[in-house]
Design brief:
four-stranded antiparallel sheet; 44% helix; 30 helices; 13% strand; four-stranded mixed sheet
Length: 820
């Protein structure tokens, strides 16, 4: 038992050593939207006593929108004069006090109070910033000023999180200079449609469809509510409600587990009965956004009350089934309504509004391609190489038959068909007719050689009738060839010591006795036509690949490593762009030596690209290449990648920890792109989750699984490599009850035209589960796209969603128009 405990703690620390590193960095410090400098107005010099309000206002809006798009994938914000007025009020106060603050003096001390002054609800937040209004004689543009102001917000991760928060879709902006125009103070007011409160009733109106009293409930308290905003057990509370005979029941399979969610001192729930008719399409919503509720509220319901009224039966039962409220009498008969749960902490602070859910997120079998890293640095390439139509001279040897003097195209064609060269054209052919030394000086032999050579020239023209090939004939003896052969002969090696003329005489002596003895072994082979063929390689169209592969192999054989790397880098680009096929990879001939490791790694990478993923073969090839030299960082990464891609089953949790340690070491290698390491690590975490889902629910496995989900969040790149992979990972987190994170995975891809309808409608159903999601601009965008793609499916889905998504007025317009 002690051993298991040690393992859990060790693995926990291993995970959070990386998490802590990631969380200490502020990703917003380098924000610098250079594209805004394309606006000529924004780069004009800013003068505090002579500037244009419209330019400053527009520049600030654009800068905020770009920050929200870059870091949170949010759409552009809208503006409203009342929000601007509230922001201006606070900016003027800051300037008068020469102090950056979001607090004012009574009766407008808080942002909430200032919003109400302008007829708005309290659903808004505020940020303050300060910057130099001028740099004296130095250049200081509108762009510079706005960048300095927004950096004042982004340099603090807490204020940055507010600025980037998806739930805010409106921005109010106000500014003021101090007395001597040295500094400018600004206020940003962020809000959404709930800040506009058209349904608020003034006076003593009767028959309202909601509880008018707040019943002592107060607004959100960050310190008390922070945990329940991320507790996935809170999400399932709405599934615990059922109605029978006008009585609302709360059921749960484990009341002890429920106690950890709503059973602490001061914890409670309140039921909120929201009628669908409160959101009529042809009028203002009958909702007071200043209230914590939307409809009729019950009194506070505590865990102890539920336990006291538990109707679950059976010995030692852990189930809970308690009647907690009656349907309000005020609800009209046959009214359509939702029951939402208001989660309360410390007896009065409203932390969450838990709504009904109808999540559609199909499990995706999509598997993201895993790609090895190229090695572009171990061998420095000899510049940038591109194929050109190179020339070459090849030899074609045609043996002469003793009694054959005329050669036809049919006779010589086989010799050209067997040429092992890439596609080429022939520019010139030099025919060198060669005779053996025993015919040296023989006029008849010379005449026969001439006849043979001329017949070959004629045959070549017949063989290549369309080619304008230059043909040249020359004659030679076989003296040099003879010397090379005869020197190794045990009997006649002494002939190699003679002159050409002496050898010719010796061969002819005694009626050619020696020539006859040597003819079969040597002299016959010395009678031939050597064709020196000058060619130009074809590098057009489909011919290019064959030429480049051949060029690469010959360069490798010559050990010209820089040139070989330059050629291979060109091949990599062609494989990546799908211009070359698998033959370009298979055809590479590279020795299995340490000096060739980079070339072997790149070959395995190219095979990886051709296959679309890591196969068993490419993984084996890569591991073999990496073993040649395990000191290079690319080799270390690729070896781990190949091992992860193999998906070898885990032996136990110790095995998981060992493999994780190998991946974590990659983060210390500075040459490796962290995004690639993250992708590799992500795939490994998904393998861990898949494995643990099938294991017994022991404390050790549950702890490891929870920590694995946390690690996925820590290592995930801001935008995943594809919408398919984002959808797949979103489904994993939906199954874990983490809807907000699932939405964050999908948001970056909403504008991609290739996303599937399942992706789009899954996003809509997911974003409808939380206020901060369904009030967002991305939810609006998704609903608009869904209405365009499949209005029937959208309307069917809307019938299952909580009606309070109509708090988002743009969504209400789309659904009212689409679904009538």
């Amino acid at each position: 038992m002690k051993k298991n405990y040690t393992l859990v703690v060790t693995f926990f620390l291993l995970i959070f050593s990386n998490l802590a590193f990631g969380q200490t960095e502020n990703p917003y410090l380098d924000f610098n939207p250079e594209q805004l400098k394309n606006n000529k107005d924004y780069v004009r010099n800013f003068v505090p006593n002579n500037f244009k309000h419209a330019i400053l206002y527009s520049c600030m809006q654009d800068m905020v929108n770009l920050a929200r798009a870059e870091y949170a994938f949010n759409p552009a914000m809208k503006t409203d004069e009342r929000l601007d007025s509230a922001a201006l009020m606070q900016a003027q106060y800051q300037a008068s006090k020469e102090e950056k603050t979001i607090e004012n003096i009574s009766p407008y001390r808080t942002t909430d109070q200032r919003l109400r002054k302008y007829g708005l609800s309290g659903h808004g937040v505020e940020l303050a910033s300060k910057a130099k209004a001028t740099l004296g004689a130095a250049e200081y543009s509108y762009y510079d000023l706005c960048l300095e102001l927004i950096r004042g917000i982004l340099k603090n991760v807490k204020t940055a999180a507010v600025l980037l928060d998806r739930q805010y879709t409106y921005l109010g902006f106000g500014y003021e200079f101090d007395q001597y125009m040295k500094n400018v103070y600004v206020s940003y007011v962020l809000a959404n449609d709930r800040v506009f409160n058209p349904g608020k009733v003034v006076g003593m109106a009767k028959d309202l469809p909601y509880t008018r009293s707040k019943m002592g409930l107060l607004g959100y308290d960050d310190q008390l509510c922070r945990k329940c905003m991320t507790d996935k057990n809170v999400e399932i509370l709405s599934e615990c409600l059922s109605v029978k005979d006008n009585v609302v029941y709360f059921s749960h399979d484990d009341y002890k587990a429920l106690r950890r969610v709503i059973g602490k001192e001061g914890d409670a729930i309140v039921l909120d009965f929201v009628q669908h008719d409160q959101y009529k399409c042809d009028g203002a919503d009958q909702v007071d956004q200043d209230k914590p509720n939307h409809g009729f509220m019950t009194k506070i319901i505590t865990y102890e009350q539920m336990l006291a009224d538990n109707q679950a039966t059976g010995k030692k039962t852990s189930k809970l089934l308690a009647p907690i409220a009656e349907i309000p009498e005020e609800l009209p008969e046959n009214a359509d309504f939702d029951i939402n749960i208001i989660l309360v902490k410390d007896g009065k602070y409203v932390c969450r509004n838990v709504v009904k859910k109808s999540v559609e997120c199909k499990h995706s079998d999509y598997k993201e391609s895993m790609l090895f890293l190229k090695d572009a640095s171990s061998i420095k390439p000899a510049g940038e190489w591109v194929p050109t139509a190179e020339k070459n001279t090849i030899e074609v040897v045609i043996p002469f038959e003793d009694k054959k003097f005329d050669y036809t195209a049919a006779d010589i064609a086989p010799y050209f068909q067997n040429i092992n060269e890439p596609a080429f054209t022939i520019d010139k052919i030099e025919i060198v007719a060669t005779n053996s030394l025993n015919y040296f000086g023989d006029a008849t032999a010379q005449k026969n050689q001439k006849r043979r050579a001329e017949s070959i020239a004629k045959a070549l023209k017949a063989l290549y009738p369309d080619g304008n090939i230059e043909t040249v004939i020359s004659y030679d003896d076989s003296w040099e060839v003879f010397k090379k052969d005869i020197v190794y002969d045990e009997v006649y090696y002494d002939l190699s010591l003679m002159t050409k003329q002496e050898v010719a005489a010796a061969l002819k002596a005694d009626g050619g006795k020696v020539a006859k003895l040597l003819d079969a072994k040597y002299l016959k082979k010395h009678r031939f036509a050597k064709l020196l063929v000058t060619i130009s390689y074809k590098v057009d169209g489909d011919n290019e690949q064959e030429f480049v592969v051949t060029k690469f192999n010959r360069t490798v054989a010559a050990k010209k490593w820089p040139l070989a790397m330059a050629i291979q880098q060109y091949m990599i680009k062609q494989v990546e762009s799908k211009k070359y096929n698998s033959r370009a990879v298979v055809g590479q001939e590279i020795p299995n030596r340490k000096e060739c490791q980079a070339l072997l790694i790149n070959k395995a990478y190219m095979q990886n690209v051709v296959d679309g993923d890591v196969t068993d073969k490419s993984a084996q090839d890569m591991i073999a290449a990496c073993k040649l030299d395990q000191t290079t960082q690319v080799a270390q990464f690729n070896k781990v990648m190949a091992e992860v891609a193999a998906r070898t089953p885990f032996v136990d949790n110790t095995d998981i920890a060992t493999r994780q340690a190998a991946i974590d070491r990659l983060y210390t290698l500075v040459q490796l792109p962290q995004e690639q390491v993250n992708n590799l690590n992500m795939e490994f975490q998904l393998q861990i989750i898949e494995h643990l889902k099938k294991q017994p629910a022991t404390t050790e496995n549950i702890t490891l699984l929870d920590n694995t989900y946390l690690k996925v969040k820590a290592i995930r790149n801001p935008k995943m490599s594809s919408w398919q992979n984002a959808y797949k990972l979103a489904a994993v987190f939906v199954n874990n009850g983490d809807y907000v994170y699932a939405v964050s995975l999908m948001e970056p891809f909403l504008d991609e035209p290739t996303i599937s309808n399942d992706f789009l409608f899954s996003f809509v159903s997911l974003a409808a589960v939380r206020e901060e999601l369904y009030m967002s601009g991305n939810f609006t965008k998704a609903v608009q796209k869904a209405a365009e793609k499949d209005p029937t499916r959208l309307c069917n889905l809307f019938d299952k969603l909580p009606v309070i998504i109509f708090d988002n007025q743009e969504v209400k317009k789309v659904l009212c128009k689409t679904c009538k």
